[in-house]
Amino acid sequence: MSVWPLWRATSLLLLLCAIYPLPTQSIIVQDTDTGINFDSTWSLDGNPSNSGGFAHRTNITGGTASYSFYGSDISMYGVTHLSGANFIFTVDGTNTKNCTCHVGVDVWSFWQLVCEIGNLDPSAAHNLVVKHNDVDGQWVNLDYLQIINFTSTTTSQTLSSSTSTSTPSTPKSSHPSHVAAIAGGVGGGVGGLIIVGILLLLMRSRKESSRHTIASATETTARPSQAQSSVEKQSAEAGYGSIFPSPQHTAGSPFHAYGNGYSGVPELDGQGTRPGAFPDTGFTTPGYSRVDRNHQIPEI
Hints:
Elements: H1 3-19, E1 26-30, E2 37-38, E3 43-46, E4 54-58, E5 64-70, E6 73-80, E7 86-91, E8 95-100, E9 108-117, E10 125-132, E11 140-142, E12 144-148, E13 162-164, E14 179-182, H2 187-237, E15 288-292, E16 295-298
Helix pairs in contact: 1-2
């Protein structure tokens, strides 16, 4: 197969990947996961509107929470409100963002994306620190974390956003910790489309190559006929008959069906001789007329 079809297949693959990016895997780490370390300023907020029914919150300046993970991107989801506080979101001590849970309306909104840091090395271990950075009395609410490109075999959980006008209530009991994995649902379909597209392109290239081969073979087969015509023309100019057999039989020329001289011998003249072919020795066989030295016809 030529390089051109392979190049077209590669181009198609890159185009499909650009249109349909390969899916990424992510997990949800609930605030009740034991891997998240909260200092003493944080409290558990039990409210059915939170993911899993609970969230952690602090209204004390300097209150911190930390979590170690592997991944290329980490996001924090929480509760936003008029009384929400600003906080610092730091990964590995140097990658820092200033974020907030504050909004300008007196509405409690749950499952809101409040901060995110990406472009991390997914093969390296990272450490996240969330730190309250506002006046006392303003709230930082951590409902759950989402990590991209994290390998996990835990069960998945579907999340949806909700908004409530009520104030979160105080929890009565703790909630078991768990980690939920969310896998990209379109991965198999995108991969199938890419494979089918490449196969169709390769099949089309094979058909085009076959048509080209057949056309070349037909052209090559026609060349001997052209060569035969050229030789016949040269023989005629030299005064000889065709050296190629002819399917036509003509009366008066017994061997004309085998060509005007099968081996290039001149044709018979009106007297039954071949001028210039052989010298006349005058020899005849009794009972036969001298018509052709190559063939004798009985006299009647």
